[in-house]
Amino acid sequence: MRHRRTGTGSRTFYWGSAVKEERRILIVDDDRDSTGLLKLLLEKTGGYVVLEENDAAKALQSARNFRPHLILLDIMMPQRDGVELASEIDADPQLQRTPIIFLTALGDARAGLRIQGYPVLAKPINVPELINRLEENLATSRSDMVANRKGLGGTTGFETYEIRPHENGDGVDLISDQFRFSPIWYAGPDAVRNAVAYAKYHSLSRSHQAKILVLDDFGAVIQTH
């Protein structure tokens, strides 16, 4: 006989002596089509309750309200980058025990890559792989996670990145000695923000901190990150 008990937060299902709890997953990504499809696929498994947040500026408050068991966090978003948001989640007393999986379409999310100690999955998302990662991270105790992150040894130095106006005035160039092919050109209204986000992502993936200088047409530093 099947009995179902519902209430606020996660729901618990009783199948005889077995207990199955639906875990709350928060997806933070500005791509509504992507989050909508991912929510549908995850909830069809019957094991997850999924909340989408497509506005990165509201993500921290949504997480506080929803109290997710795990957060799927896109790295490149218009309002703010996921690495910065993850740092705020880590510093929040209500959320600092919450596992995070980063999502990226940057194309260099090699196997085993971690940023700030958290795993990274490449887009487009392979759903079976994602579910495996979800279960691995949901099963990991926070103490194990903290030990793992400390075991990474933290950052080991600084890497300098410069963001300069592109030669034709359209967008900016991200320049660093760490790039095999430099510079990287960014265009559009969010060019500087996206360049800063990638510089942070690139340096953290190499266990370094980024020193990012934004320069004007005359080579003067107008912003630092």
Structural summary, described in words:
By secondary structure, the chain is an alpha/beta fold. It folds into 2 domains: 2-151, Response regulator (Rossmann fold), CATH 3.40.50.2300; 158-224, no CATH class. Helices cover 31% and strands 30% of the residues. The protein has helices at 32-44, 59-66, 82-91, 127-139, 142-151, 191-205; strands spanning 2-5, 12-15, 18-21, 23-28, 48-53, 70-74, 100-104, 114-115, 118-122, 158-165, 172-175, 184-186, 209-215, 221-224. The longest helix is centred in the last third of the chain and has 15 residues, at 191-205.
Total domains, how many? 2
**What is the CATH homology-level superfamily of the largest domain?**
Response regulator
CATH architecture of the largest domain: 3-Layer(aba) Sandwich
Task: Give the low-confidence spans.
Answer: 1-20, 141-153
- The general outline is elongated
Tally the beta strands.
14
Main beta sheet, described? 6 strands, mixed
Helix content estimate: 25-40%
Determine the mean pLDDT: 78
CATH class of the largest domain: Alpha Beta
Distance between the termini: 59 Å
Give the helices and strands as they follow along the chain. Answer: EEEEHEHEHEEEHHEEEHEE
Named CATH topology of the largest domain: Rossmann fold
Structural class: alpha/beta
DSSP strand (E) fraction?
25-35%
- From the alpha-carbon coordinates, what is the Rg to the nearest angstrom? 20 Å
Please, how many helices? 6
Strands in their spatial order, largest beta sheet? 5-4-6-7-9-8
